[in-house]
Amino acid sequence: MKWTEKNRENLAGYLFIMPSVLGFAFFILLPLLFSLALVFTEWDYLRGLDGLSFSGLANLREALQDELVYKSLKNNVLFSVVSVPAAMLIGLVFATALNKFVYLKSLLRTLIFLPYMSSLVAISVVWRVLYHSSEGPINAFLRALGLADPPGWLASPDWALPAIIIMTVWTYIGYAMVLYLAGLQGISRDLYEAADIDGATGLQRFRAITVPLLKPTSFLIAITLIIASFQVFASVQVMTDGGPMQSTTVLALYIYRQAFEFRDMSYGATISWVLFLVIFVVTMIQWRTQKKWQNQF
Amino acid sequence: MKKKALYTMSLLLAVTLLAAACGGNGEGHPASEGNGGEGGSASADAVQLRFWGGVPPESGPQAVVDTWNAAHPDIQVEYIRFVNDESGNTKLDTALLSSNDVPDLYVTYSDANLNRRIDAGMSAPLDELAAGADFDIDAVVGKDNLNVKDDSIYYLPATKTYQTMLINMSALEAAGADVPRAWTWDEFAELARTLNQPGQYGAYFNPGWEPIAYDMSITADPVDVYYGEDGMSTFRSLPSFREGLELQKALIDEQVTYPFAEANMNKLQPQDELLNEKAAMVFTGTYLIRYIKDEQAYPNRDFQVAFAPVPQYEAGTNVNSGGMGDYIMINPKSENKEAAMAFLAWYLEEGNMELVAGGRVPSSKQADMGEVADLLIGDYAKYIDKESLTHLLAADVTFKQFTQTTAQSEIQKAFKEEAEKYFMDAQSIDETIDSLTQRADEAIAAAK
């Protein structure tokens, strides 16, 4: 092959991106492929690579019959389906209100955004104390309101998942609000003035102008929050560790348990790929529908 | 020319990066021999040992290592702490698998990890090494206290833990009772009911542990309590499992102890419950002494804490569900196994006395338990009933043993989960025993 100018330039280009490509290959691509290989093997990792033995589809078969996988998946779906829309709705309301009112705007915005910035583990520890069924402030407040038998929150199989969802919504609101605030800046005042002249009420303006024009923002928030919410781990591990009676178990927690508590790396990897497939499918659906959303503009 | 300069520069960049990468890899091999030179205070040819353990250095290990290093300039030990949880143990496993900067000695804490590491060949046989170091294993640790595998010893325990019932002496005196010196589980339940009063539960069980039925079953069958002669689970064949679960459920229902969900979700700790006077009796281990001595965390106390032995399944025995712990192992990849053994021998004979004040009772048979009790109590005699503590430590005791640990983590998990359902009225005792047996047997079968 001739050593042309073009080849030389290409080579220079490749050499420049090589450090990053090498880093990606060693620390992301290789582990990724290895975890896929683990799905079809049993690995006694204390023996190093000698501990690998081919097991075919045994791990997948086990996962498909594992009740806890389904239960975790169900909790994951419930978690996302409730927390993401709730956070978006409340975030949108806060953003519109803050966009209008002038007083203490930046202070309020910071306060609402703060939970999203704080360490999730620290927040979870604090909320665990708040949720304490007999001595916690939340139930003390509910009792003061006259509720004789407030929920057991984290101690109750029925309330533990809602309790974690409530806390998660609280952390997501700030994120949704800040993005919506930015989106609101992009809506022209003229539209609102025109609506005013036509005699539209505040609610009508909100529904006919604000919500439709914020669709791209909503799309972005929805995708990022759904992916984040499917990976929920720290809050569950700190607050309930999947209990009581498995009522809050989620896929990420189950993966951790299999891999590091039972030391079954292969089965942990198998469930990780299940989680990946779920997120992948959800994201694909969103991308497909995105085109429809955009056609409206 | 500009292009040429660009090309040369990129090539240079690539070469530099490659060199750096290779340097990073190549550095490791000589490091295991050459690290001594960087040791600073130590002489250039001193042997360097890396000792991995889970106790924070300031709680004793650093003092141990400093004492040794001062007396042995030729063998310098560095203490490296790992956190003894799942990810910390994985980190240790990884370090043991790697080929540079390997740990020379390390501590294993759970029976499951012990057997797993021995099976995987991560621990060197110690018999010859001990003989070479003039260390008499039988005289110091006692061969009866060790699981021997293929006629070899692969670990040496540095400490022993006594499980014990800690009792608030004021509550005990108010009820007109004495500290139990030997008792059964029924007598324990009786005392718990007597001590129960508004604002203070009669008894507390650690919600993070297996239910009390585990300890009760160990007092019925101290060796391999989870495994029957056929190798399968014992939840059905040992009646003590059912009786223990029923006992704990009865105490919960009578409100003699915490509602299970509340204790579990709030992760109630024995030290808080006992020392804040929320529970009159807590079932725990001797290592809890360090909290009893902590005046800052638990100020304004006017009561002593007494130590009662583990209640027994049948009167007359003294089985303890504690046992040997802090299993020290030598890495077969270590290049200084003899030096590591010399340090280990000294550690077991006298070095680990530095850890007593932190609540770790030495495993050595030669240790003077009166002296150990004095060290455990230290300057805090007003908080600790010395008589009952000395009695606990000096009594002739049978420790629990696990010679097999097939699927033990899974069995423990199943035990906790199924008991939780029973305690929270989600299933009957029969269903609990059935699903426990099924889950444990399946886990054992899958692991074999």
UniProtKB/TrEMBL annotation, chain A:
Protein name (database record): Sugar ABC transporter permease
Keyword Cell membrane in annotation: yes
Subcellular compartments: Cell membrane
Record-level GO BP terms: transmembrane transport
Membrane topology: Multi-pass membrane protein
Keywords for the protein's UniProt record, in alphabetical order: Cell membrane, Membrane, Transmembrane, Transmembrane helix, Transport
Keyword Transmembrane helix: yes
Regions that span the bilayer: 12-40, 77-98, 110-130, 159-182, 213-234, 267-287
SUPFAM superfamilies registered for this protein in UniProt: MetI-like
Main location: membrane
High-level lineage: Bacteria, Bacillati, Bacillota, Bacilli, Bacillales
Family note: Belongs to the binding-protein-dependent transport system permease family.
A Pfam family the protein falls into: BPD_transp_1
Automatic annotation (TrEMBL), chain B:
Pfam family, one: SBP_bac_1
Cited SUPFAM superfamilies: Periplasmic binding protein-like II (SSF53850)
PROSITE patterns: PROKAR_LIPOPROTEIN
Keywords: Signal
Signal sequence annotation: 1-19
InterPro entries given in the database record: Bact_solute-bd_prot1, SBP
Official protein name in the record: Extracellular solute-binding protein
